[in-house]
Amino acid sequence: MKKLLDLSMKLNASFPFRELAGHWDNKFEYVSTTGETQLEQYFVTFLVDYSHMFFHISVAVDSLNDQFINELDNINFRTNEHIKNLKNTVLNGHDIHFTGKLFIITNSESESFPNLVESFKTRGISANIYHSTDSSLEMVAPQITYVPLHNFEDKVVKGKKTPIFSNANYTIFEEQDGKVSYAYHAKLTEAGISNTDVLNQLSLLSPEKDNFQALITNEKLRKKHSHVYATALRDVFEGHLDIAKASLQKEADKLYKN
User: Fold this and answer.
1) What angle do CA 113, 114, 119 make, to 5 degrees?
2) In which domain of life is the source organism classified (predicted)?
3) Which among 88, 115, 139 is the end of a domain?
4) pLDDT category, 65, cuts 50, 70, 90?
5) Do 41 and 124 have their domain in common?
6) What's the burial of 41, exposed, middle or buried (CB within 10 Å: 0-12/13-18/19+)?
7) Within this chain, do residues 183 and 111 fall inside the same structural domain, yes or no?
């Protein structure tokens, strides 16, 4: 077990946060090349960045093979238990998002690792496998999805800022005074931010947004129509700029006539 703990600490030290929310160890069964059934112990760490509202999972295993995919259901089950506990305690009922990546460190080498990565991919998981001597461990962090800090702050905790729409890509909030704000979960890679196209789309929504907001002159109107703007933002994030522009223009026309 000490060997696995050392492996786990080496991988986890490469991340920019140390919020340990849970860990457990287990064994997975596999059939060796000689046809014998064997057991291999592994150690899972559930780490959370409460400031950015995401979590990731790291796994340390001495000898890894492509049959480890059979443990995914067990890992998901234990992870979901941790998520429920966090939502009911620290997060006061608010959602926290999985980065979609599973980080694995091992002492072994195998030509079957690409097959294992592909197996995880078909199950909706992007797996990164690192050898314990891999120099790339120094910069695992850029592979994680980051969220602006204001996605989880005092206003949310105190009920002054309420999430309206929230998923792994964005969160849209309503403030106490009816104003709408958002947190976009920009993905960082070694080459820089990779998914900024939606930010360009948001800039194209500006004329309709400015026209709409100019007609909402007080807090009562903002609260009444906040969902309209929030929905338009959601449409942009989902790739439907035309729908967003049309809905804001339609609502602005109604406000102008009234």
Assistant:
1) 95
2) Bacteria
3) 139
4) confident
5) yes
6) middle
7) no
Does the model's pTM come out above 0.85?
no
CA 6 to chain centroid: 26
The average pLDDT across 62-70 equals 88
- Residue 163 and residue 129 in one domain: no
> Do residues 117 and 157 both lie within one domain?
no
- Rounded to an integer, what distance in angstroms lies between the CA atom of residue 129 and that of residue 127? 6
Same domain (yes/no): 205, 223: yes
Q: For 108-118, how does the pLDDT look when each residue is reduced to its tens digit (9 = 90+)?
A: 887 878 899 89
Write down the pLDDT at residue 196: 54
Q: What is the pLDDT of residues 68-89, one digit of tens each?
A: 999 999 888 888 888 888 888 8
- How far apart, in whole angstroms, are the C-alpha atoms of residue 50 and residue 45? 16
> CB of 171 within 8 A of CB of 165?
yes
Which residue, 139, 166, 199, sits at the end of a domain?
A: 139
In a domain, 64, yes or no: yes
Q: What is the mean pLDDT of residues 86-107?
A: 79
- C-alpha pair distances (Å), 146 with each of 16, 87, 136: 11, 19, 19
Residue 47 structural domain = 2-139
pLDDT at site 178: 83
**Please, are residues 7 and 105 in contact by the beta-carbon 8 Å criterion?**
yes
For residues 127 and 196, membership in a common domain is answered with no
